[in-house]
C-alpha cells in the first residue's frame, strides 16, 4: 500500500494447498506503461550468488543492485542487466509459504527495503 492506502504492488504465488511454494512467482505493480520489469532465476545457494556476481563482474556485465537480502520473501539477491538492458535477478534462500500462510500487507518502502546490502535507492536503472 502507498501512503493513501492504495495497493501499489502484489506478490502472487501458486496455490498448491498445503504444499509449500516460493514466496512469489509473479509481482505486479501498477504502471502507466505495460511491460515486464525483470526475470528471476533461482540458484543453488549463496555461494552461487557470489560466484555468479564475480563472473559477471569480471566479464564486464553491467550491475544493477545487490548483493543483498530482501525483507519480504527473505531472498538473497543480485540484479544485473543483460546485453539489451533488461534486468535479470539471481536469487536463493527464499521463504516458502502455503495456503495456511496469512496474507500480509506492507508499505512500498518495506517491500523495497533490504535486511542487508545496498538499499533500493542505490539500484541502477
Automatic annotation (TrEMBL):
Q: Mind telling me which Gene3D superfamilies this protein's record contains? A: 2,3-Dihydroxybiphenyl 1,2-Dioxygenase, domain 1
- Ranges for domain VOC: 1-93
Enumerate the SUPFAM superfamilies for this protein: Glyoxalase/Bleomycin resistance protein/Dihydroxybiphenyl dioxygenase (SSF54593)
Listed name of the protein: VOC domain-containing protein
| Originating organism | marine metagenome
Q: What is the lineage of its organism?
A: unclassified sequences, metagenomes, ecological metagenomes
